[in-house]
Predict the 3D structure of the following.
Amino acid sequence: MPKKDKEGSVGGSSPTVPYERRAAVYYYNGIGNFIQMVPALQALGFMDGGLVVDLVRDETLSDSRFEAYAELAQTWPWMGEVVNFNSQFKTRPYAYHFANPHSQKPPAWQFGAEKYGHPIWELNWGVERLHEVEYYMHSIRQLGFRGPTPPKLIPVPNLRGPIIDAPADRIQVAFVNGFFMEASMRWDRKAWPHFGPLADLLHGIYNADIHLVGFSEAELIWAERLGADKRFAFNWVGRLNIKEEVKLLSQMDLVVSTDTGLMHVADALEKPYVVALFGGTLVSKNGPWNRHKSAVVRAPVQCVGCQHSMPVWRQCGQEIGSRLTKTWPCMDALSPDMVLKEVRRWWSKRHDDSLGRVRPDGPGHPTGVGSVTQRPNRRSSE
């Protein structure tokens, strides 16, 4: 691919790489969907002997999520610059345009969809159980890409030093509960109400430090409640920028997460292992892509995976009533012991041969319950 300059940009009004060697991407949605697009973005960059991939900002939208994933994308070697959609942009002779179909559709997206020049495939998720990674790859293949699907892997941002100094006698575990029940819209049904008991189990059995990770106000409510009750838990919600969040996740041994953006970020890193908790949403669409380093846990209830089965999805929502006082049955039925089973499976695979630095007395035999010998320390990353 053409190389960017050392500032991580290829452009301005006099780009070092001509627009005929660049592709424009139009996407306006959450960070999880953006991370699912990583293989497609790389494939776009591989086309025609190597292209620089620019991300197009639509200033009619005020969305902090765009700024977060745009900042993160600037650390990826296959990405170019973030460019504003305006009258000057419309005249630039980009080689390709990719309007992500799983997006809000402001004026920039409408322009990109027209320039894309192929039918926008609106997938029936409830019938065609295609993973989102391959859904986006379909769009790139329509542009002419013929190679295999690139890996869903992102580099760790090159910050100065680690976020934490993790003691050698502890495993580091991140909890992500992206849509707590105070969250708005319908995605609060992804929330899991049993992180507290799981924290006790992991700390008691494995002497684990627990890190609470996230961005939103709803996640902050969840983290403050859980962190106040668990003195071995470290609350990072709202304290880190996106690059620091990624760096912190790369330092974890294990991430336990609901179906949310940072789960997809963790899945896209070489480390850690990911245990993903699913209820109503589709694993076939949203589940971890890198199966060699992940597991999915779902409760054995008949209605699990009801996303895009609209009668069931809506009926459940109507029956729940107040979101502030009740939980969704598919997530409530997913017990901490079910999650612990997957953690034990991960532990048995890794700790003798590769982890090897924490040796609990064995499942069910706590070591250091209620004690903190050495806490991870925050290090400067700027």
Remarks:
- The first strand starts at residue 22 and ends at 26.
- The CA atoms of residues 123 and 377 lie 46 Å apart.
